[in-house]
């Protein structure tokens, strides 16, 4: 397994990073390259690693300045020298067989990447749920459209669980085409290179806490993602999903905070209804007091269609 590099990308989260590092050091295999890429704004992480006698157990790279998350990802991508690689987060935890299981899967076929489902944990590392489909068999994501479909129905695998093939992903970089959700479009481009295999095993722990970038909801960023999704070819199966929700999911602001949001606003297949919804959300962003008025108008429109 010397042809694998595990990157842990960290930024000012030294205490959580310790648990992440220890979980990687406790893997049931050890013949891989382990790099901690420190993008912190200070030297506290390095000091903490030194105090805990961990800094010599992997390759430590302190960046010359604090980069944006996107630039930090691209920097690590440019430094991959092995056939396979993982870009892991500094607040998540690997189970002991994560690396060996994913490596066995990715080397068994012509995949651009493999990924796994996860347990979710809170800030105290207590298991509070699961993340990802809990299927009995693995799931093949054979193109970008299939991946986007999974995101549209909210049935996805955690982003840090992916192991990638450098050969398939060598020409790819992160671009800010979907705002803070650019990891979704990155994975879509990965799926365009070759199929992705989702391994139906919980092989890691995904931490849920207020310090996550994903915990901050932004409609403007969601609209960027939705607009980017429109560039992908949509299957007949997806059209049926959109039509299913066409008249059923007008909801108030608080109820829109869920994974089905793109189903409501994918205007390509929901026609004028989606355009009205998109307008509703834009008004919500800029003129919150108009929400109920527009909601009533949409109800009248839908009532007239039935």
TrEMBL record:
Q: Any idea where the Glycosyltransferase 2-like domain is?
A: 5-124
What GO molecular function terms would the record report?
hexosyltransferase activity
Q: Which InterPro entries match?
A: Glyco_trans_2-like, Nucleotide-diphossugar_trans
Q: Name one Pfam family in it.
A: Glycos_transf_2
Task: Identify the keywords attached in UniProt to this record, alphabetized.
Answer: Transferase
Q: Which CDD domains match?
A: Glyco_tranf_GTA_type
Name this polypeptide is given: Glycosyltransferase involved in cell wall bisynthesis
């Amino acid at each position: 397994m010397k042809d694998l590099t595990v990157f842990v990308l960290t930024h000012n989260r030294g205490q959580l990073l310790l648990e992440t590092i220890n979980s990687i050091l406790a893997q049931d295999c050890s013949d891989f390259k382990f790099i901690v890429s420190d993008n912190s704004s200070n030297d506290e992480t390095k000091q903490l690693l030194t105090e805990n006698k961990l800094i010599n157990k992997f390759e430590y790279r302190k960046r010359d300045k604090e980069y944006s998350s996107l630039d930090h990802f691209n920097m690590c991508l440019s430094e991959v020298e092995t056939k396979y690689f993982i870009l892991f987060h500094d607040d998540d935890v690997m189970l002991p067989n994560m690396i060996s299981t994913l490596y066995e899967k990715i080397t068994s076929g012509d995949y651009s990447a493999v990924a796994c489902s996860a347990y979710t944990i809170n800030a105290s590392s207590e298991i509070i749920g699961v993340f990802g489909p809990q299927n009995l068999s693995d799931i093949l994501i054979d193109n970008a459209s299939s991946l986007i479909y999974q995101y549209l129905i909210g049935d996805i695998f955690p982003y840090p669980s992916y192991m990638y093939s450098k050969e398939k992903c060598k020409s790819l970089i992160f671009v800010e085409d979907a705002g803070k959700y650019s990891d979704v479009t990155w994975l879509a481009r990965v799926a365009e290179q070759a199929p992705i295999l989702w391994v139906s095993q919980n092989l890691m722990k995904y931490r849920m806490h207020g310090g996550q970038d994903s915990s901050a909801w932004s409609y403007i960023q969601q609209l960027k993602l939705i607009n980017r999704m429109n560039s992908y070819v949509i299957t007949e199966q997806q059209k049926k999903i959109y039509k299913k929700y066409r008249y059923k999911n007008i909801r108030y602001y608080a109820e829109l905070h869920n994974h089905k949001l793109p189903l409501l606003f994918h205007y390509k297949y929901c026609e004028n209804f989606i355009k009205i919804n998109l307008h509703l959300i834009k008004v919500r962003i800029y003129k919150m007091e108009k929400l109920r008025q527009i909601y009533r108008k949409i109800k009248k429109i839908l009532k007239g269609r039935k």
